[in-house]
Amino acid sequence: MYAPSSAASYFEAPGGAQVTVAASSPPAVPSHSMVGITMDVGGSPIVSSAGAYLIHGGMDGTRHSLAHTARSSPATLEMAIENLQKSEGITPHKSGLLNSHLQWLLDNYETAEGVSLPRSSLYNHYLRHCQEHKLDPVNAASFGKLIRSVFMGLRTRRLGTRGNSKYHYCGIRLKPDSPLNRLQEDTQYMAMRQQPMHQKPRYRPAQKTDSLGDSSSHSSLHSTPEQAMATQSQQHQQYIDVSHVFPEFPAPDLGNVLLQESVTPHDVKALQLVYRRHCEATLDVVMNLQFHYIEKLWLSFWNSKASASDGPTSLPTSDDEPDGAVLPKDKLISLCKYDPILKWMRGCDHILYQALVEILIPDVLRPVPSTLTQAIRNFAKSLEGWLTNAMSDFPQQVIQTKVGVVSAFAQTLRRYTSLNHLAQAARAVLQNTSQINQMLSDLNRVDFANVQEQASWVCQCEESVVQRLEQDFKLTLQQQSSLEQWAAWLDDVVTQVLKQHVGSPSFPRAARQFLLKWSFYSSMVIRDLTLRSAASFGSFHLIRLLYDEYMFYLVENRVAEATGETPIAVMGEFNDLSSLSLTLLDKKDISDRRSSEVDTDARSLGEPLVKRERSDPSHPLQGI
């Protein structure tokens, strides 16, 4: 601490300025620079308040950085609230709520040199605080202004590897005695800063008490349901992909759309910024398996209390200061009424939700705990209701578009978790030698010639292709292959069947037709096993369910790759036809026109369509 009136020695700062060191400590001043005058001494800001000075980033005798901690005074909080009321137009009746938020920041955080906090993690701390004390949280942008009103001069930097960087507050950290330090999911970043990306854990190991006294002093923290949830989340971290790279969003293409006077290009840029930041916060919450925070995030984003009449939307002047962008609710509604904006937002949602799927279920065949699977399914069940509630005041078209995408996301989570459950059940069957031998014996009794004869009229498949698949299936079963080897075989089947359609507009339709034929043919085999009362019927039924689901998974990913869409977008094509993307519509129109042309040609030749398909070697599905 430094005082202008103290008579003590000076030391010279790197910038050449001299600073007086107090011989005795004056009354404590806040560790933050909420109010007062900020100056620079050798690159370290000096904050003055009531005759006392505080140098941020000072050094001790060993040239180590000093953290500055102190309690705030009521007068300091009042001045900060007064400043916020003037700068943000906050009404006086909200001062009590502001006081609570500011006091919480001061109680849990302090300035320190050379450290940083992920901005989304700090906001998650805040949401937890509001939930525990039943307070209405402000949105992320407004929260950023609250922080800057407490820690003036705080810098924001984008840190991390390229493509996976996040905004961090530089020069701030949790206080050592803050209760937040005991929450594993919120302290993981302390170790992350020191490790390579592929080694970074999302949580620290649970801290164990060393004595009965310590246990009793913190027993309430360690016994809460939330703490138990955090411990379980820590155990689940190994099953998700925490190193996933979040792709960048494309820019909205307004084309020749004329904006109304109330909406400017400046507002469109602001939307790009805040929506990306909102999606990053969503991704971070899901990556920490804090599913219950999603509802609050959505409510906060889509229901900003600010009004567009309060003033123009502000944008950051640089990439280092992104906290100034705020979009009030009425401005957001106005922007969403433009079709190009809605289409852009839909595309961003496809990217976000696909990333979330790949984070939560990176490998559909890998064994995962049933508790994690159930948590994901419960999360999927709640998504549509949460979003509909958060957007209740928006136009119906906007709600339908947004809910259509989140519905496809929820359906994908349900399908993938079901596929994973089937995989674990089938794994036990495939590892049982006696069951495999019984299955092989029963399969050899199936009359495949009769099956092919019955299925040929519907499937129109080449007999040689069907025979090859039959032989490969029996050989793979005889070799007692693992689940992963079966998956590789199924993947090879899809590759061989669809390779002639790669790069062709007929690829999506050929892929869907293959799924139908695969399902129909396998059902005929199951029918034969049923009629023969095969002892291994139950095992075959389970395997059939798994292979059908896995085939669907493979095909939807191949179609997504071929069309340049995400699998979420491919499935969204059928979940929400009203907001179908133009690209998918065009591709479907091409397929429909080709089908109609085939019908016309067949009728003009006086030849049945089925016969026409079987005799035409160029038909796109003939080789399947």
Automatic annotation (TrEMBL):
Transmembrane segments: none annotated. Residues 210-234 have a biased composition (Low complexity). Residues 593-617 have a biased composition (Basic and acidic residues). Gene3D superfamilies: Winged helix-like DNA-binding domain superfamily/Winged helix DNA-binding domain. One of its GO terms (cellular component) is nucleus. Homodimer; probably only forms homodimers in testis. Heterodimer; heterodimerizes with RFX1 and RFX3. This is DNA-binding protein RFX2.
